[in-house]
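dumping these here so i dont lose them again. two proteins, back to back, each one seq then structure tokens. dont judge the mess
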Amino acid sequence: MLLDKGDLQSGPAGGPAPLLICDLTQSYSPAGGGGVSTYLREKRDYILAKTPHTLLQIVPGPEDKVVVNGRHIWAEVGADPVRGSPNYRFILRTKIVRELLARYRPDVVESLCPWVLPWTAIHHRRAYPDTALVAAYSTDFPNAHVFRVAQAKFGTTLGKGFRWLSYGYAEITYREFDWVYTLSDEVCAVLAKHNVPRTSVLQLGVDIDTFHPSKRDPGFRAELGLPGDGPLLIYAGRLDNEKRADRLVDMFRRLPNDLGAAMVLIGDGKLRERLAEESRDLPIHFMGFVHDRDVLARALASSDIYVSGMADETFGISIVEAQASGLPVVGVASGAMIDRVPDGLGLLGPVDDTQKMAEHVMAIWHDDHEAIGRAARAHVEARFSWDRTFERLLTDIYPKALQSVAMRRTTGGRPRATILSAPVPVA
């Protein structure tokens, strides 16, 4: 059954009419985890349980498919796997996306990735001007992704050139949106510098009931066959180059044997088989990707220290889930980790410095690590919840975008102030 926009019921007397909201992203994987996949799931649950709205979510999949379940419409667009990241796919058949948008005519389209699909949404809005466009600028991708990759491959000078081009693309693209949200004030400032003024900070959240210290199981370590009575380290995320998963194994080798440490790596990715082979002599357990959130919550709460070498963390949902489970964090002073791990909740060191990371693990373990974990839990309880995230999205950010639509319709202009002399992508 396909649901047309005309089938939506009007809102209660005196209240706003329900919206048809669309999430649009390349960054979805049914087996790879990731912050966007978590966001899509949590948003679906919130919309269906606590609002009258209808939610259309368009993601890549192995084939074209639309599943309607009440007020939730799940649409997969057939796409090929991303080379080197087999859990992810990349939509190039934007005509199918345009057809879905034209059929359902969402009131708000929220774009959750920077490549190709934002322009699919922009071109849809040009055909249907009443559509409000919201974008998640969840990472400063010209610097965090483009520059780092280009610098490694071509050197610093060319890396800066690619970064400059990417910022030009970002400016052209995101000035077309009615509102943009970021995950930090610093990224808002970067966008303002590049003439994207309509921005807000949106803190993402965590399920603080699922991820809780009470889920700790004293038998978890023995169940995995891990020896020792020292710290049980844990990481949850993709095991690939971007996440720097190999640094964790190198860090573990630098820990003294008499520390009695062991480590659990949760996740899948192209480095998994290689890392498992290289660490056969170490007390490291590879759990693979964990679909069940309760299983993940038990694993986190049953460990002692969360470790991550990720330099370009965008929000760090996995970090906040670990903190909610009562764990100190040992990581790197880069990306969102700086905001997620303030003084007193863990230790951060230089990127790729696995010796310093090992020293920080020992320092945390020999400190009052349980008290640090309790402080981490209190920090999350005070600041992060999905309810707060989606309340802000629906009562502040979406209304600002819809107001921008009304102003644009009144003035007959586009949301951007100027048109730059650069090519406009076609999608």
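---- next one ----
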Amino acid sequence: MNAFLLIIPLFLIRFGLLKMINKDALSRAALFAPLEGGEKVAYLFYQLSNAFIILYLVFLKIQTKPPLFFIALLIYFLGISVLIISTVNFAKPEQSGINTNGIFRISRNPMYIGYFIYFSSCVLLTHSILLLISLLVFQISAHWIILSEERWCVNKFGTEYINYMNKVKRYI
């Protein structure tokens, strides 16, 4: 079975579900905070690794040998679940514009966590070392994107966001 099928739920969640819940949230999700210095390089690596992961899956096959297959499927569905929950919560920010509801009470970046879990399952389902390396590049560069987003949120929301940062961890 072609591994590109693994990506279909990602597109449905990221674009379809988000647009269905809140069209404005779709455009908010597409915005990146202003980048400084090395963050620009991280952004380039983030976009390239993201594109590579998605496109490279076209050339891979899902490996179905138990027990790794079943473990990877559990992780895959966990990733999908985190992405759905975080997408629904992202689409409905508080009046101030900050997302602190639902899963955002546990993590300031649940969508990035969902992407990591989701893409990790793709690595396990395909047994691809190259995909694993791409995922690591993606995750390291995503950390720099997150730092720029946090700086932007502090500038935009001030004390309210700083208080949120003090209560909720960046990841988990």
